[in-house]
């Protein structure tokens, strides 16, 4: 059975390539059916990997080990700095080392349910299957995961899960996993199989004869526009959370590579599915440049609360009283009250929405009224300060540095912030986009987390895609096309693409207006957060669409840029990224308007149950919305991949 | 707060640089140091001057990209803090703050406060890994590692590769950076097989890059934003000596 999932009028055929057969056998069977590239032929292929986070570094390393020639690109000064490094809490794996009832099927089921039934069963099951191999691989690389006194690996439970399946390295799990992948990558650089291109940004995808043939890049130091040709292009470029300006993403995280590929024909899946993380340090001041996450693991021991009444909250907001002055009976532990079985550990979307609701009721704390308490007093009383310090010491320190308050003495103040984007380039089971030879891995694709990602699953997906999926699926494509199917960078397709990139840069520099890219970015972020953030409605979205269109128009007539293109010019880099965010923003709004239901991180106020929970519409929206670019300022065309659930039964997600 | 800044401006690696004075008013003590630079850069842009180029990315103290030498100290006056985690409340109203790039022969200036740290990548490429191919790992719990050993490896593995150790050192030595990786992998059973070769190769690369010798002043560890201990340099020396005594390449 091949799922051909779309009407044919535009020639785009959305085939998920999900294998037939029982769920647990799909991946094994598929691996056997994939074509192999002869070991001696692997050196005849050139693979382009864009981005060196968990997905990119692991893919480049694994492909280099197999014998392919890899070119790895990143905009940072070293591959080790990709934003995967900032992930704090951990990585899930169905090892069941704790004997607490975990299994591959349970991890699969939790992920599908956590994603509010908007992910592909086949992909998610594969993710759960290979999760166990990831931990083995990382330990073998020398990743210093936390351990018990007996020497076995330690685990903790993490938001949205009732088993302890999360592996961690203090509060720096992403750093340690990335440095593991970076070390494997460095080994392949030393072996001559991977060539690194740091401080190099992809600005266009080259397609010729219907296939991805290479990329156009800008050397960020010299400004030179260059062409790179390959047999396949892997986009491992992360998510687009910075469309909101303020997010937990790094300052440089951007959508440019994925967006330019989208404009060349790759479909964009579920762009409106964005994750708002519940535990971040609240916004303070108009100069703020980014938001800092406080790991979700803190919710294992911290209790979330606000004052019971608006009157008490107002006193806190004015600074007349402090948290410790509020009596126990005047506190509302709202997550424990509303969700007795999951309590403070409800999934991220639920926790965020509830925090927003109590603040909207006027019961928020901090001067802005936009914060809730995360209180460790009971945990310290129960376990001692020493135990809490051993678990979260570095996070408490980070909090104190930023906020100038000691969380051992006074509760943390937290508020939700944009953190992750579940949407991304549409890919099939092989991680290939609808453009042959173009792949998307990790956060850059849409595939595994549905409408909401569970904690500690992003690291898992990045490494699963890079270490254990792409080495198999890429070979199938390469064996089909053969080593000769490549074009040189002197081909007109490359020259034309270079010209377009150069023209766009010249155009930006020639505007000489009054408003900096930074100012446009902040303004766009404000629109997105206000109307396409934690809660959305048709009226607000329609308004946002118009505002974004106007802002985009203004950008191209009033942008202010200094310096030139033939030098290191951070303002130019930012302007080029903001230009893409200004287009993506509108597509996110369109997608949110199209999806007349609430699911996961996408909450439409018109579609909620009586007690304010999200109300899905499985009859009409059990599909992946994959958008096709139709030209500048044209509405994009919607394609639907209907999701088929053969194993799990769709139910109302409940954490009560 | 009112702040006076003296900032190193240098157009590119071929042009000589100089200190340039700037004045900023209305600086909030809650701003991060880099947010203060954002404000300066916005002002410069609006005046038609070129903004100050500086490296930064995660702004939460983990990517290791930010690298400012502030009032004669890498990452400024606070200990255990990166530039991005430094806040203006660490300074006083009316202060003059001097900001320079990392100064080291192995870290050439690219522009303004941005330096080239690829030498660090090449040190890691020389041996900062365990040679294990993807897919060939045994079960993660097959080799038990005592908690103290895992903790010690983690203490070393925390290095963010920012280069503050080099900037702090009067010899611009990269010993703390190199030691952190050698030590992490030397204490773990997974890294043991190659521990001698690794020590030899990484030290040789470090020397080839033009980093200076270590005279064990300890400035690196004091200025390290992750407070990585000098013990790891001691372990590097032991590893290196052991490797050289047993080596065929001696």
From TrEMBL, chain B:
Q: Which UniProt keywords apply?
A: 2Fe-2S, 4Fe-4S, Iron, Iron-sulfur, Metal-binding, Oxidoreductase
Required co-factors:
[2Fe-2S] cluster; [4Fe-4S] cluster; [3Fe-4S] cluster
Q: Which PROSITE patterns does the annotation name?
A: 2FE2S_FER_1 (PS00197), 4FE4S_FER_2 (PS51379)
Q: Which Gene3D superfamilies match?
A: 3.10.20.30, Alpha-helical ferredoxin
* Keyword set includes Iron-sulfur: yes
GO biological process terms on file: respiratory electron transport chain; tricarboxylic acid cycle
Annotated coiled-coil positions are none
Annotated 4Fe-4S ferredoxin-type domain residues: 150-180
Task: Cite the GO molecular-function annotations of the record.
Answer: 2 iron, 2 sulfur cluster binding; 4 iron, 4 sulfur cluster binding; electron transfer activity; metal ion binding; oxidoreductase activity
The UniProt entry, under Pfam families, shows:
Fer2_3, Fer4_8
Member of which family? Belongs to the succinate dehydrogenase/fumarate reductase iron-sulfur protein family.
What protein name does the entry list?
Answer: Succinate dehydrogenase/fumarate reductase iron-sulfur subunit
Give the species: Larkinella terrae
């Amino acid at each position: 059975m091949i799922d051909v999932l779309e009407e044919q009028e535009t020639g785009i055929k959305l085939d998920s390539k999900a294998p037939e057969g029982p769920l647990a056998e799909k991946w094994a069977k598929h691996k056997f059916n994939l074509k192999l590239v002869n070991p001696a032929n692997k050196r005849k292929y050139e693979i382009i990997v864009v981005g060196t986070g968990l997905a990119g570094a692991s893919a480049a390393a694994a492909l280099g080990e197999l014998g392919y020639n890899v070119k790895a690109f990143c905009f940072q000064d070293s591959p080790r700095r990709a934003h995967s490094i900032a992930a704090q809490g951990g990585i899930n794996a169905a090892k069941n080392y704790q004997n607490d009832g975990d299994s591959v099927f349970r991890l699969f089921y939790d992920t599908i349910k956590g994603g509010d039934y908007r992910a592909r069963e086949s992909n998610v099951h594969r993710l759960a299957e290979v999760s166990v191999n990831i931990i083995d691989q990382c330990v073998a690389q020398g990743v210093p995961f936390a351990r018990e006194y007996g020497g076995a690996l330690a685990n903790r439970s993490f938001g949205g899960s009732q088993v302890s399946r999360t592996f961690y390295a203090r509060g720096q799990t992403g750093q340690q996993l990335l440095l593991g992948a970076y070390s494997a990558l460095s080994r392949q650089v030393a072996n001559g199989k991977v060539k690194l291109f740091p401080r190099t940004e992809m600005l266009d995808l080259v397609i010729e004869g219907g296939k991805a043939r290479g990329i156009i890049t800008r050397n960020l130091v010299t400004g030179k526009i260059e062409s790179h040709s390959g047999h396949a292009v892997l986009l491992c470029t992360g998510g687009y959370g910075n469309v909101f300006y303020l997010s937990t993403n790094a300052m440089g995280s951007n959508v440019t590579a994925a967006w330019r590929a989208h404009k060349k024909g790759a479909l964009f899946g579920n762009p409106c599915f964005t994750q708002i993380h519940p535990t971040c340090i609240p916004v303070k001041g108009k100069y703020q440049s980014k938001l800092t996450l406080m790991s979700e693991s803190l919710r294992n021991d911290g209790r979330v609360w606000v004052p019971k009444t608006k009157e008490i909250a107002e006193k806190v907001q004015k600074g007349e009283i402090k948290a410790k002055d509020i009596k126990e009976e005047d506190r509302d532990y709202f997550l424990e009250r509303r969700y007795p079985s999951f309590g403070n550990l409800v999934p991220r979307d639920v926790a965020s929405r509830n925090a927003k609701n109590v603040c909207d009721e006027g019961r928020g704390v901090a001067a802005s009224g936009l914060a809730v308490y995360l209180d460790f007093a009971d945990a310290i009383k129960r376990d001692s300060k020493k135990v809490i310090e051993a678990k979260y010491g570095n996070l408490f320190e980070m909090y104190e540095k930023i906020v100038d308050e000691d969380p051992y003495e006074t509760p943390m103040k937290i508020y939700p912030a944009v953190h992750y984007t579940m949407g991304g380039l549409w890919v099939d089971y092989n991680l290939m986009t609808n453009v042959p030879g173009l792949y998307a891995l990790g956060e850059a694709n849409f595939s595994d987390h549905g409408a909401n990602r569970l904690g500690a699953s992003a690291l898992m997906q990045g490494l699963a895609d890079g270490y254990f999926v792409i080495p198999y699926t890429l070979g199938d494509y390469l064996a089909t096309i053969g080593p000769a199917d490549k074009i040189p960078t002197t081909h007109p397709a490359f020259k034309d693409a270079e010209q377009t990139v150069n023209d766009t840069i010249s155009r930006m520099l020639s505007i000489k207006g009054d408003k900096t890219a930074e100012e446009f970015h902040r303004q766009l972020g404000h629109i997105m957060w206000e109307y396409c953030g934690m809660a959305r409605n048709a009226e607000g979205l329609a308004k946002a669409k118009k505002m974004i269109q106007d802002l985009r128009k203004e950008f191209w007539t009033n942008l202010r840029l200094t310096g030139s293109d033939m030098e290191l010019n951070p303002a130019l880099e930012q302007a080029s990224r903001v230009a893409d965010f200004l287009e993506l923003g509108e597509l996110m709004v369109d997608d949110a308007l199209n999806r007349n239901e609430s699911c996961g991180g996408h909450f439409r106020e018109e579609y909620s149950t009586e007690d304010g929970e999200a109300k899905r519409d499985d009859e009409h929206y059990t599909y992946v919305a994959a958008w096709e670019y139709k030209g500048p300022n044209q509405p994009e065309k919607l394609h639907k991949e209907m999701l088929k659930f053969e194993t799990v039964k769709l139910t109302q997600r409940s954490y009560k | 707060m009112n702040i006076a800044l003296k900032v190193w401006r240098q157009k590119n690696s071929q042009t000589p640089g100089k200190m340039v004075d700037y004045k900023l008013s209305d600086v909030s003590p809650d701003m991060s140091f880099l947010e203060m630079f954002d404000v300066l850069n916005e002002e410069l842009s609006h005046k038609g001057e070129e903004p100050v180029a500086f490296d930064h990315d995660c702004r939460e103290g983990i990517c290791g990209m930010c690298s400012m030498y502030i009032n004669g100290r890498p990452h400024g006056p606070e200990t255990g803090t990166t530039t991005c985690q430094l806040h203006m409340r660490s300074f006083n109203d009316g202060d003059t703050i001097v900001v320079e790039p990392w100064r080291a022969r192995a870290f050439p200036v690219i522009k303004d406060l941005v330096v080239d740290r690829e030498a660090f990548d090449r040190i890691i490429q020389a041996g900062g890994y365990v040679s294990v191919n993807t897919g060939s790992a045994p079960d993660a719990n097959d080799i038990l590692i005592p908690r103290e050993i895992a903790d010690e490896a983690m203490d070393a593995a925390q290095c963010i590769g920012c280069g503050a150790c080099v900037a702090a050192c009067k010899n611009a030595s990269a010993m703390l950076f190199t030691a952190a990786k050698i030590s992490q992998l030397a204490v773990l059973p997974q890294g043991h097989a190659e521990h001698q070769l690794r020590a030899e190769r990484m030290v040789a690369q470090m020397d080839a890059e033009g980093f200076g010798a270590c005279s064990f002043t300890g400035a690196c560890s004091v200025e390290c934003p992750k407070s990585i201990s000098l013990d790891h340099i001691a372990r590097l020396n032991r590893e290196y000596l052991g490797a050289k005594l047993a080596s065929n390449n001696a």
